[in-house]
C-alpha cells in the first residue's frame, strides 16, 4: 500500500489573515539548494523562457530559506524528512510541515521557511521558473 502525502500547504483553521511578515528572514542560512533536473518548457509546451525544475533543499537546524514570492512561479514542496515551519503572507501563524507533507505555492504568496527542529529538513521542490 502506498501512503498518500498530506496537503498541508494551508493555514490552520481560523488563522487565515494578512501577515506583513515584518520579522521575515531575508538571507539564506544553513541551506543548500541543488537542481536535480529540469525540463525546457519551450520544447515541451511552447512556453518560452521557462523551465520546470526539481530541486533538493537541505535546511540545517536553525537554517532559513529566505523571504521570496511565487508571482508567476507555482511550486509544490514535498518534505522528505525532518520538520520545517513556513511563515506565509496569508497566515497569522507558522505552518508546521512534518515529513510527508506537500505544500502548494502559487501566485499571491510570499513566504519564508525555518527549520526549528534538531535534525536537517530535506525538501524536494518542483517549480516553474523563468530563465534569468
From TrEMBL:
InterPro entries hit by this protein: Cupin_2, RmlC-like_jellyroll, RmlC_Cupin_sf
Gene3D superfamilies: Jelly Rolls
Domain Cupin type-2: 57-125
Pfam families the UniProt entry points to: Cupin_2 (PF07883)
Domain of life: Bacteria
Record-given protein name: Cupin domain-containing protein
Organism, scientific name: Croceibacterium salegens
Amino acid at each position: 500500500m502506498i501512503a498518500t502525502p498530506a496537503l498541508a500547504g494551508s493555514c490552520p483553521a481560523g488563522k487565515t489573515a494578512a501577515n506583513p511578515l515584518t520579522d521575515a528572514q531575508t538571507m539564506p542560512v544553513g541551506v543548500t539548494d541543488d537542481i536535480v533536473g529540469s525540463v525546457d518548457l519551450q520544447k515541451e509546451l511552447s512556453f518560452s523562457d521557462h523551465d520546470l525544475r526539481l530541486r533538493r533543499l537541505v535546511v540545517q537546524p536553525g537554517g532559513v530559506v529566505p523571504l521570496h514570492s511565487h508571482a508567476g512561479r507555482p511550486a509544490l514542496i514535498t518534505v522528505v524528512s525532518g520538520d520545517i515551519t513556513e511563515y506565509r503572507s496569508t497566515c497569522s501563524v507558522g505552518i508546521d510541515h512534518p515529513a510527508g507533507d506537500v505544500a502548494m505555492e502559487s501566485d499571491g504568496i510570499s513566504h519564508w521557511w525555518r527549520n526549528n527542529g534538531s535534525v536537517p529538513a530535506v525538501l524536494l521542490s518542483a517549480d516553474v521558473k523563468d530563465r534569468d
